[in-house]
Amino acid sequence: MVAAGTHVVPALGVLPRLGRYARLVKFQFVLDFFLALLIVWTAMAPDTRLDGPVLLTLLVFALGKVGVLSAVMTLDDVTGVKDGSDTANYLSDDNTELRPLKRKPLLTGELTVHQAQRFGLAALAWGAVWWLVATLSAPHVPVWGLVVTVLLLVLSVQYSWGLKLSYFGLGEVCLLFSASAFVLSPYALTVGELPAFVLVEALLFGFGQLLISGYSNTQDIPGDAAVGRRTVAVMASERGNQVFLGGLTALNVLVIAVPFAAGWIPAWFALATLPVVVLRLRQYASFLSNGHALLARSRGVVVFRTTVGCVLLYNLARPWL
Q: Which pLDDT band holds residue 89 (cuts at 50, 70, 90)?
């Protein structure tokens, strides 16, 4: 295979070229992140969901979100190719269909590092411009919402690019904040308040993504350790990493249990999210039993999408509960 970044990519038509960039940005995972906007929209009072300024703000925020997420995914791959971690993690002998190489067009030589980096920076600029427009035209701009939006724009790409927070033991915190903020930021700009149930839903969204990444990082220990990426999976012992993942699983459950016990969210919410608890515990128990990190990661995607489904069901039914 020709080394990524040095291969001369032949000229392509528009559709094949778009296909390569779509795989570069992991479009299927970008779509998962867009579910945050559905959570925001359904969490609003029914009489505001079709309000013109609200819909316009969500649309403009979505345009920016395409750019920010594309930048996050692209620049992560640029770093992974430059430091060799993606080569180690995706071209290893134990790679399976659960992690197909076609997701990495930089490794297959379909795109060069220069092309990807240029695209990533352009996508980040696109996102910044549209989020500025969203902020200036939003019905509400509370200080806390503005702070969350700015931090989301700045920190989301720092996971493995720029400050490279995941190389200094801060990647998990960065990911939890960024994923949660994709719910909090547009809700702030459209509603201006932060009800307890929306904060809980944002954290559930964040833990959904974090627990996908946690098992993925477990699979990537050799490659990440070789390039100095200090994820918890790398820094901890095998037993320590199991405890950490168990702790995240417990926190995911407590995000529901504690607000319910405190009376911040109703019993209907706890009941609606019960399938999330069951699937999350099954995911962790299965991982302890077989040690299959990629299978646990795949199950994490199912848990995440189930979480979104349960939250949407509750939000739509909430006015009648």
A: confident
